[in-house]
Sequence to fold (251 residues):
Amino acid sequence: MRKRATSEDALILFDNVQFIYELALAELELQAFEVSYQITNGLRTIKVLNDPDYDLLRKRLAYFKLINNQLSDYSRICARNRTRSANQYLTHWIYPYKGKFHPQMIRALLNILKLKPGETVLDPFIGSGTTAVEALLLGINCVGIDISPLCVIQSKVKTESVFALNEILRARNSVVSQCEFPLGKGVVKNLYETIWKISNPQVRDFYLMAYLVAVSDRERRRKDFNTSFITNVDRMIGSFGPSGSCGRAQP
Fold:
């Protein structure tokens, strides 16, 4: 028997949900989880009319910050934003990439497709790895393909570095030591060669990604290469460490 709806049976959208397509995706998410609902309060609040699995909704939904008066898991994840821009939490911020998907949209699409933990999604144009990161957070396997080596390394670093974090930390001082004197072509060459001598490919890719971010910062923003490299290494470590852990969350 369906329970009688109460004032607590409500879903509150994130404040930054402003576009019609976002509301449409939010509704499709609810339909995928067989939630009967009514939109109220100027399109900000959705009243639940049946008795869904609220624990599952809290773990999976992308566009709702409050579910039955409790923070959604996604709300807690978004609180770990790494930059001033929205949706740059955990490892999504690593390396500037034009035309990337919003992570919320990808999470919503995975829900709409009704993919479950242990199942697999294919992204034939993996780009910056947004699908791979969001799939990882939901316990979904992701196969990503891209013709660009830069896209491949981005996706691998964003999803695999967490599993080599201890080795990344151990290598940090020896790698960063190549930046302890004024920048010159020889310094960059020494740093690059030091990175390529790292035997563990996950550790090597991590520092190569930081190197490429520093190159981008120097060319696009006229930042000092050494400062940018060291800053980004530590920020990237923070994205995987206790302050921004991107572990294999299981719904």
Notes: The longest strand covers residues 10-13. The radius of gyration is 21 Å.
